[in-house]
Write a structure and sequence with these properties.
Beta-Lactamase, two-stranded antiparallel ribbon, 8 helices, 8 strands, 18% strand, elongated
């Protein structure tokens, strides 16, 4: 049975892509967590599965060769609909999964348990899941351990995202600290292609900022002396 979409599906997909983790190479930090999950739960298969728009992609895997499967047959697509761990003790006894090709053919899933990987905004990005070829269950201690490991997966993802943003910020700082060619008269800035643009346009291109405009007191005095005189009178009246 195909899982329905989450209530915040578009927001969830945007959050997942913001981590820039899909289709990245294996990493020891994640592989260690799946290995621990498989060991603690005593299962042959453990996965860090990220649920994309039409697939589930495995950032880390133990006991499975495939790198991804269609979302239509994904167990994890069901698990991300849950607030807590989803445990399927026997897939053949569950109408949602009994005819699933992942059950009837390799890898012959008979037991599944998946903990949602929740972003800081409570958006389910995927799961840390464990799988067995025989019906079974998990102890309370194994469930708690699996939930703890799932939180560590999200922590690794957050560290990755924060590090990427910090690197981008440092690049922008290095750009601004460099010699920026600026017109001595109108203060326009010349870009790398040799074109001149305003300071506002340059900073908007190289930094995530927007501008509002006003006139400082010194410029009001210089360019609009009549307005400055009115403002001084208003200030004097308010002070009196």
């Amino acid at each position: 049975m195909k899982a329905p979409l989450t209530e915040r599906e578009q927001e969830r997909l945007e959050a997942l892509r913001d981590y820039r983790i899909l289709d990245t190479p294996p990493e020891r930090a994640y592989d260690d967590l799946t290995a621990l999950a498989a060991c603690i739960c005593d299962v042959p298969i453990a996965l860090i599965s990220l649920v994309d728009s039409d697939r589930q992609w495995f950032k880390s895997k133990v006991g499975l060769e495939a790198c991804q499967t269609d979302r239509d047959v994904s167990f994890c697509a069901h698990a991300i609909l849950e607030e807590d761990i989803l445990v399927i003790q026997d897939t053949l006894a569950d109408s949602r999964f009994a005819a699933n090709p992942l059950v009837t053919r390799a890898p012959n899933i008979r037991f599944y348990a998946g903990v949602p990987l929740l972003s800081p905004d409570a958006l389910p990005l995927g799961t840390l899941c464990v799988i067995d070829h025989e019906p079974r269950d998990l102890s309370e201690g194994q469930i708690r351990a699996l939930e703890g490991l799932a939180r560590q997966v999200v922590t690794q993802m957050e560290l990755r995202r924060v590090s990427a943003r910090l690197a981008q910020a440092l690049e922008k700082i290095a750009l601004i600290e460099g010699l920026i060619p600026i017109c001595s008269y109108c203060k326009a800035i010349r870009n790398d292609a040799g074109y001149w643009s305003s300071v506002e346009a340059f900073l908007k291109e190289h930094a995530d900022v927007s501008f509002t405009h006003g006139v400082c007191q010194a410029c009001i005095e210089h360019h609009f002396p009549e307005v400055a005189e009115v403002m001084r009178r208003q200030d004097a009246d308010q002070a009196g």
